[in-house]
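Subject: for your reference before the review

Hello V.,

The reviewers asked for a structural picture of the protein, and I figured it would be easier to keep everything in one thread rather than splitting it across files. Below is the amino acid sequence we used in the manuscript, unchanged from the supplementary table.
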Amino acid sequence: MSIFRIEDHFSEEKDMGRRAWKSISLTLKQLLWNTFLILLGSIICCLGIKGIILPHRFFSAGFTGVSLLLYYMFPSIPVYASYFAMNIPLFAIALLYVGHRFFFYSILGMVIFSWTLAFPIPVLPVNDNILAALMAGIFIGTGSGIILRSFGSAGGLDVLCVILLKKFSVRLGTTILAFNIVLLAAGAFLFSLEMALYTLISLFVSSNIVDIVVTGLSQRKAVYIISPRWNDIYRMIIDEMRRGVTIIRGQGGYSGQDEQILFTVITMRELPEIKKLIHGLDPNAFVVVTDTLEVMGHRIGNQPHW
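And here is what came back from the structure prediction:
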């Protein structure tokens, strides 16, 4: 082997070593960041549960709600212990349906969430039940959304929510609200209808906050544009906004003339810009802007990477 081939061989080994170290570094950063998100979300959730829900004897969502009902009936069973125990069979089933990464982070999240539930939390000074329900919903919705912004969850109902979102595009908040109707009915029957109604307020608020935290802040808009100057608008979207455009061939229902319909997906921040640019080229352009449930794609997608 010549000296040049030996040098090339060592150079390739160095490049491979650098790539491997970079990959390990990125993986470690992801692990630390996702652990931080899970811990932060768990702490915020526990502020709502132990700082507001428990003192007011409200109910809650998912497995946490079941744990609270058990605690109200059997005070000797801690909330964190029953929550941890109920998650064990769930994760045995979840391994068949969710990705390994989500499964690992959800196990981590479940342990962290159970651990934070075991710590004493100060009671928040909110005496009015309606205000308490609103604040509890804000805390729990924000905490749950932050946890779901990671690659995992805190276990329980979150795992079921992700499965339904991935397979059937059912919103996270919708699943949470629908699933807990049965739980509320049980709480109203066993304890108090009034407490169940206060809890319903909390669940409604938390379900909307979850949607805002997970996808609402990165909401995408679908834009349809019909204009005689479609070619200029098409070039403007590509060159100035750096967004892709699909040209759809159509026909005017009244005029019978052929039309070119432009379709693009943008972020909410880009909506004022594209409206201004379209109006500058053709003030009479026909523009339809619609909301999107979720968008998949590496450049414009907003779906969490579960």
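For the response letter, the relevant points are probably these. The mean pLDDT is 80. The chain is about 65% helix and 10% strand.

Happy to draft the paragraph if you're swamped.

O.
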